[in-house]
Write a structure and sequence with these properties.
Blueprint lengths: L5 H11 L9 E4 L5 H7 L6 E5 L5 H4 L7 E6 L2 H14 L4 E5 L12 E7 L5 H7 E12 L5 H7 L11 H12 L4 E13 L2 H10 L12 H12 E2 L2 E14 L1
Parallel strand pairs: 2-3, 2-5, 3-4, 5-6
Antiparallel strand pairs: 1-7, 6-9, 7-9, 8-9
Helix pairs in contact: 1-4
């Protein structure tokens, strides 16, 4: 994991695909919420929304019509170029996308009513600084147990071997230290069924779930064995471990 070059990986994915997984045929069961629906529920037509780690902007653009201004940032220049193209195709003239690091948000204090971040790094002090006095931060993150059976099969993976719940606890502690008073956190596991082998391979190729997937000699053999064990009449079964946080100033 320490040798995996995430920056190069994200730039390559940003250039070719962004975070657009619409082509993947997958059925999900058990999800108690959808993060961007939650963000939209807190929005008004006058709201200014900042989306941190926006990737290709696909998810944030889906709720762009609920706010006055959407600004998405990402550290990857390739992701931002994809997001700009997606915004132009969608006709959202009030959406802006900028290359920027999450630990140094180049915005005035108290500018945004809402800040969102899905499956990306963020910094609590910077979020607190750019939010209004009654602003809301919403995030969804990947838990340590995500795709645990798949990672177990490969013997490696994102957050492989880390203590379950550690990331959620750290996030909540950082938000509290940054001055957020109302912090609600919850975790959940959903079941996913990928329709075909190609759908699962697309996921593994375009995410860091199994770092360097396909480059190790035995990867395809391991995947074949996993599929044999987890294929059902609904598709190839995996599990997704997630947690959400809704924090208010």
């Amino acid at each position: 994991m320490n040798n995996f070059d995430y920056k190069t990986f994200y730039n390559a994915i940003g250039r070719t695909n962004g975070w657009d997984f619409s082509r993947v045929k997958c059925v999900t069961e058990g999800a108690p919420w959808e993060m961007y629906h939650e963000v939209a529920a807190h929005a008004t037509p006058a709201s200014l929304l900042l989306d941190i780690g926006t990737g290709g902007g696909e998810a944030a653009l889906s709720i762009a019509g609920t706010v006055r201004l959407l600004i998405g940032i990402d550290r990857s220049s390739e992701m931002i170029e994809t997001a700009k193209r997606n915004a132009a195709r969608a006709g959202h003239a009030h959406a802006r996308f900028l290359q920027m690091e999450a630990e140094r948000l180049v915005f005035p204090d108290g500018l945004f009513d809402l800040v969102s971040s899905r499956h990306s790094e963020w910094h609590a002090e910077e979020i607190a600084r750019v939010l209004t006095a009654d602003g809301v931060f919403v995030t969804q993150q990947v838990g340590e147990g995500d795709k645990h059976q798949l990672k177990e099969a490969f013997g490696r993976g994102q957050s492989w071997g880390e203590q379950p719940g550690a990331l959620q606890a750290r996030c909540c502690a950082e938000l509290e230290a940054a001055g957020f008073r109302d912090i609600r956190a919850f975790d959940y596991t959903v079941t996913e069924y990928y329709e075909t082998v190609d759908d699962l391979i697309f996921l593994l190729t375009h995410t860091p779930i199994i770092p360097d997937f396909g480059r190790e000699t035995d990867d395809l053999r391991i995947l074949e064995r996993y599929i044999e064990t987890h294929r059902t009449n609904r598709g190839i079964r995996t599990t997704a471990d997630r947690f959400g946080i809704i924090a208010k100033r």
